Amino acid sequence: MTEKKFDEVKFMHQQREKLSEKLSEMTKQEIVEYFKKRKLETQTKPSA
Question: Among residues 14, 35, 43, 48, which one has the fewest Cβ atoms lying within 10 Å of its Cβ?
Fold first, then answer.
């Protein structure tokens, strides 16, 4: 069995936890603004 150098699932869980902590301190309006801003800043486009 090959040993992984990067654990994608562990990374995803860590990122989700960070986001949950950040959002838990915000109001609903702040959360909406946060995601609007993120959408404008990070536009990942699919590639073929």
Answer: 48
pTM score of the predicted model: 0.61
DSSP category for residue 2: P
What's the pLDDT at 42?
A: 80
Kindly give, in sequence order, each residue whose CB lies less than 8 Å from that of residue 34, ignoring residues fewer than 6 positions away.
22, 23, 26
Nearest-angstrom CA–CA distance, 19 and 17: 5
Is residue 31 within 8 A of residue 23, CB to CB? The reply is yes
Instruction: Give the list of residues 6+ apart from residue 31 with CB closer than 8 angstroms, or none.
Output: 23
